[in-house]
Specification:
The chain is an all-alpha fold. It is 81% helix and 0% strand. It is built from three helices and no strands.
């Protein structure tokens, strides 16, 4: 999070993709920490497989935004 703040501070006019990526990183952190702390009982293996897939997809989307910044 600190790196995001430093990069935005150094730019006179922050890139829209960079701002969106920073917001997505913060949201990703909050969402997945909450989900990990409240594991669904029963099919734990399926829960974590789905969690890992969704996390990877969102990270790829953020990487795409950063590569365009």
């Amino acid at each position: 999070m600190f790196v995001y703040a430093v990069v935005l501070q150094e730019q006179s006019q922050p890139n829209e993709n960079l701002q969106q990526a920073g917001a997505d990183i913060l949201a990703l952190n909050v969402e997945f920490v909450k989900r990990i702390n409240h594991t669904e009982p029963g099919s734990v293996s399926l829960f974590y497989n789905k969690l890992r897939e969704e996390f990877s997809e969102k990270v790829r989307n953020i990487y795409g935004l950063l590569s365009q910044a």
